[in-house]
Amino acid sequence: MSYEVNIVYFKNYTESSGSYKFLHKDYLGSILSISDEAGNKIEQRHYDAWGNLTHLQVNGGAIMTDENQIRDFLSNGGLLVDRGYTSHEHFAEVGLIHMNGRLYDPLLRRFLNADENIQDMFNTQNYNKYGYVLNNPLMFNDPSGEFIPLLAAAIGWIVSNAAAIATAAAIGAAVGLAAYTVGVLVTGSKWSFVAALKATFWGGISGAVTFGIGSIFSSAAQTFGNAILQAAAHGVAQGTLSLMQGASFKQAFIAGALGSLGASAWG
């Protein structure tokens, strides 16, 4: 059964027809309750933040909260489906959760084998190869057991570098406004508040993007190949920003790439 599934069809080989059961999940994908076709609640579960089953009710019976009682019930195959926390498969007999790529222990709050991937070199949690979802289980889940999705890593990098990004954006905004003002003075055209605001906004975006690219390449060895890759990244970024403003991609690409190469040469 795929962990994304919300409807399950049950059929015993001795029966002529089966029935559908509906899985009700939270935002992390954990199965909190199961109902039948009539909407009757068959099972209700509650997991703590790390995946330990702490409360269990079956067919409207008494709510089980005792750890040993729950473990014995699970070991005897009492649950309708063997998936639960983040919709992954539970090995109740040994207290582990099969997260596809690796086995996870909710008591230790750790995987039993190491993650081979480092998604964000700027986040120290990524160097804990046995850690689960950057030690933030209420925010993320790990469908494959191998790595946090790229978006999560990007969010982590943004949060950890928020101050530096804000500073770069502020500098870029100031440069954008100054460039527009100088242009107005040189050409003798009329100063426009809307145009000035636009120049400030795009200047801030450009500053933040430039900082991000520079941060990615700053930890890499300063080789000619890396300088070319960094120049290409800056060129694409500046060209895209220019295109979004209705200007030329080519000219902005060339300017961004040459500026990056110049900075690397003087670096």
Automatic annotation (TrEMBL):
Q: Which residues form a coiled coil?
A: none
> Where do the TM regions start and end?
147-180, 200-221
Q: Which UniProt keywords apply?
A: Membrane, Transmembrane, Transmembrane helix
Entry protein name: RHS repeat-associated core domain-containing protein
Q: Which organism is it from?
A: Cruoricaptor ignavus
What PANTHER family does its record include? Answer: PTHR32305, TRNA NUCLEASE WAPA
Q: Which NCBIfam families does this chain map to?
A: Rhs_assc_core
